[in-house]
Amino acid sequence: MPKHVLILTHAFPPISAVATYRPLRMAKAFEASGWDVSVITVYPANIRFRERSDSLLLYVSDKTDVIRIKDTVSYRLWVESNRVIARLRLKSFFRKIVKAALQVWARLKWPAEYRQINALRKRTGASFLLADMVWVCPAIREGLKLNACSPLDVVISTMPPHMSGTVAYELYQQAGIPYVLDYRDLFVGHPFGDPPVGDGRLEDLFLENPLLVLGVTEGITQLLSKRTQSPVEFFPNGFDADLFKEYLALSQEGTDGQLKLVHAGTLYEGCGLSSLISALENLPPTKYLLTLAGSIDKETSAALKQHEVSAEVRGTISAEAAHQLVATSDVTIAVGLKDDTGVIRAKIFEMLALKKPTLYVGKDADEGAHLLKRCGLLVGCAQSVPELETIIKNLVKTKTEGRAFCKPNDQEIKKYSLGQQGPRLVSLVEEALR
Predict the structure, then answer these.
(1) Closest Cα to residue 367, out of 188, 182, 217?
(2) Cα(257)–Cα(400) distance, rounded to whole angstroms?
(3) In angstroms, rounded to a whole number, what is the distance separating the alpha carbons of residues 208 and 70?
(4) What is the pLDDT of residues 58-76, one digit of tens each?
(5) What rounded mean pLDDT belongs to the chain?
(6) What is the pLDDT of residues 327-364, one digit of tens each?
(7) What is the pLDDT of residues 104-146, one digit of tens each?
(8) Is the four-CA dihedral 219, 221, 224, 225 of positive or negative sign?
(9) Engineering a disulfide at 11: which of 19, 198, 221, 364 sits with its beta carbon 3.0 to 4.6 angstroms away?
């Protein structure tokens, strides 16, 4: 009888968020190894700021049992009320009323699950976000139902501790199902909740008994190793080349005339983008075209208007459109994070898949910069305006002379493919279950 794994994730096809690809790759890896795979995720309409890409559903096997949590009543109440509250005075007063209403709703609709989470909250001092509770409560119920029909061998949590971590922990407490904590972002030691909880007691509780802990970067893996007695493994995002096949040919075409720079992803003013904008302001606009695709905060938008750089702003676009932009660019731009963690952003692995020359705006000590350098894709790493100006001038010269921007290290890039990482993940879980 095949083993059965349950993957807990908010992002899953047809949602085209960056976070979709990691759990999707996990599901494909376990299925390729003969496991039965179930996924508990959200109904696409429940997610704000997400583009729907039905084409991603082609990569989900018919054998995958996808359970979608659909509670539009409470979710819409939370989303719409916050939208209205944002325009009102006495915001905190009205927000408290909405929170109280949602607490009553959750208590009435999922009484048993609400009591369990409330007990967990009192035990650790955590304060769960109500928008997450309307997913956590029914996810626990669905997980127990699934286990009763088809016993689960392991549960993988791929979201923050106060979300899927809570579901995995409760399934372990109530049904004894081993769980894997997958840290794919900056959750280590970070406060969560409303108001935030600074001491991380909830996270520490979940780290007491996991079957296995996965860290998306070497830095996160090292931090986790100090906080748990369970096995901790470095498991990077990697990529599935099949998802990018139709764009691989485009990436060979390049562009004529201007140097085409593309940044696809969320844009924050505080993480180096302002330096990039300032650098581009001092360069001849006929030499380059900067395309920005993704959600843009107010500071970045204001900076673009102030400097009047030669930029094309696409805003939030579909995954397909973002991949096509990256594929047809000359050089992609990877912007570092605001803080000093230097964590590798998931977008970088998409650039590896497309083997795109990449300009890193951030510290050369960041893991992202190191990864790009090892893979032969780093065309420059800079933080200051003069450094960026120099790099971009050299890139323009390289394009004018018809030379290659970089020489990809195919052997190193291959290490991060699903073909390499997928079997390793399954092997790690099977070894831990023995």
Answers:
(1) 217
(2) 8
(3) 31
(4) 889 899 999 998 765 555 5
(5) 79
(6) 888 898 887 765 555 556 667 777 888 888 999 888 88
(7) 777 787 888 878 877 777 777 666 555 566 778 889 999 999 9
(8) negative
(9) 19
Per-residue burial over 261-293, b = 16 or more CB atoms within 10 Å of its CB, e = otherwise = bbbbbbbbbebbbbbbbbbbbebeeebbbbbbb
What's the CA gap between 37 and 24, in Å, rounded? 11
Residue 93 has pLDDT above 60, yes or no: yes
Q: Which two tokens stand for residue 173?
A: 């407490």
Range in 161-170, 272-281, 382-391 with the lowest mean pLDDT: 272-281
Query: What are the boundaries of each domain within the chain?
Result: 4-70+110-238+417-433, 241-414
Task: Measure the CA–CA gap between 296 and 300, rounded to whole angstroms.
Answer: 6
User: For residue 187, what are its two tokens?
Assistant: 């959750």
**Which DSSP state fits 163?**
I
Q: Whole-angstrom Cα distance, residue 259 to residue 378?
A: 16
CATH code for the structural domain at 4-70+110-238+417-433: 3.40.50.2000
- DSSP per position, 363-379: -TTSHHHHHHHHTT-EE
What are the residues whose beta carbons fall under 8 Å from the beta carbon of 370, sequence distance 6 or more?
none
User: CATH for 241-414?
Assistant: 3.40.50.2000
Q: Give CA–CA dist 133/51, Å, rounded.
A: 23
Q: Residue length, the chain?
A: 434
Inter-residue contact 180 to 212 (CB < 8 Å): yes
Instruction: Report the candidate in 183, 163, 175 with the shortest Cα–Cα distance to residue 117.
Output: 163
Cβ atoms of 139 and 10 within 8 Å: the answer is: no
